[in-house]
Write a structure and sequence with these properties.
Length: 378
């Protein structure tokens, strides 16, 4: 028996050596992305619930389904912002000195969009909002000069950064007001708990003056949700009831446009609701609004959407529907003449890509990280 075992062991070792000899030596390769991004690329953020210190962002091609690159973005990652000329990516990030514990450091990481390499870091106060990602956590001024990052400790404030000089300028206390939205070259707006907006007006040197608006919604009667999207110089917000609040921010201070409703009284009675983490996206050129909907109770605002309802924003009417092959918690449309609609579900890896105009199911991308949440265009 010992002789037999020795013969078998020798045979297995010989086989292993033979197989090993046939393996080719892998040579690492790197690629540089084009200076102009494809209109069908999409960034997908991954909060990575089971290992939050290792957040990531994946750049996906909606035509091929291929991953074009990845950013390693640290603890409780939300999303990043791009300069208007696509030359810089700014990513608010948090790190702990011992990985899962230790001294906290918050930075704005500066990335090269072609190599995805970090080219610089801007230190900011260790107060950056950490929570389930929302669209308004960071904003870049229209002329790419200033960054504003929302802080929550739970005291609320905003860090102002000179993006071109790459330096932190000031922290502005904003009690009762949250999130931050671009409002032209020298202003940012925030939503406040009493139903008003707070405008942060900046001088060319970054000095800040604050102005409070009139109330434009009643938080006790119909609370505004923390999901929204931008069209031109306006931001579009949604109340729990499905009421649409469009706010023109072209002149810095907000101008509140007439409201309208996504749902008819019959649809409201049938419990149709908005739901998810990024449930609204707008195609600017055609003024087409896409929203995720589902049937549910008043506390189902995080529930995945089963359909996408499509609206003409000029007519303020629904004009179609996209039936989803899989429920989704986030959607994002590309901004070209043949737009694609990306969908992801925070509880399942992967994405689905549709033709945004026809609703046709184009392709499935089976694996994107652990918990894909927010999406944004390059």
């Amino acid at each position: 028996m010992k002789l037999f075992n020795s013969i078998v062991l020798a045979a297995l070792c010989a086989m292993s050596l033979s197989i090993s000899a046939e393996l080719a030596v892998e040579t690492p390769t790197t690629k540089t992305l084009p200076k102009e991004p494809s209109p069908h690329w999409m960034w997908v953020s991954d909060l990575n619930f089971f290992s939050m210190e290792a957040g990531k962002a994946y750049l996906m091609d909606g035509d091929s389904g291929q991953m074009m690159g990845m950013l390693s973005t640290g603890y409780f990652f939300a999303s990043a912002v791009h300069s208007s000329d696509h030359s810089v990516i700014y990513s608010p990030e948090t790190y702990l000195s011992r990985g899962t514990r230790g001294e906290r450091t918050d930075v704005i990481a500066v990335y090269d969009p072609q190599t995805l390499a970090v080219t610089d870091e801007i230190s900011i106060p260790a107060k950056r909002f950490s929570g389930v990602p929302v669209v308004g956590h960071t904003a870049l001024s229209a002329d790419d000069q200033f960054l504003a990052t929302f802080n929550f400790t739970p005291a609320q404030s905003v860090s102002i950064i000179d993006a071109k000089a790459k330096k932190f300028l000031a922290e502005v206390e904003t009690p009762g007001c949250a999130q931050v939205f671009q409002a032209g070259n020298r202003a940012f707006n925030m939503i406040c708990g009493d139903g008003s907006m707070l405008t942060l007006k900046l001088s060319d040197s970054g000095e800040v003056e604050t102005v409070r608006s009139e109330k434009f919604f009643d938080p006790r009667a119909d609370m505004l949700d923390d999901k929204m999207d931008q069209i031109g110089d306006s931001w579009v917000f949604f109340a729990k009831s499905g009421t649409v609040h469009q706010v023109d921010m072209s002149n810095g201070e907000p101008k509140f446009l007439p409201t309208w409703s996504l749902f008819s009284p019959e649809q409201i009675a049938d419990n149709w609701r908005l739901g998810g983490y990024q449930y609204a996206t707008i195609h600017d050129a055609t003024e087409t609004l896409f929203v995720l909907v589902h049937r549910g109770d008043e506390f189902s605002h995080k529930a995945p959407g089963v359909d996408v309802w499509v609206y003409d924003m000029k007519q303020q009417k629904r004009r179609g529907m996209i039936s989803l092959s899989h429920p989704a918690t986030a959607i994002r449309v590309t901004q070209d003449d043949a737009p694609l609609l990306f969908t992801v579900d925070a509880e399942h890896s992967g994405a689905v890509v549709y033709d945004a105009m026809s609703g046709a199911h184009n392709l499935d991308i089976p694996e994107i990280g652990m918990n894909p949440l927010l999406m944004w265009s390059p």
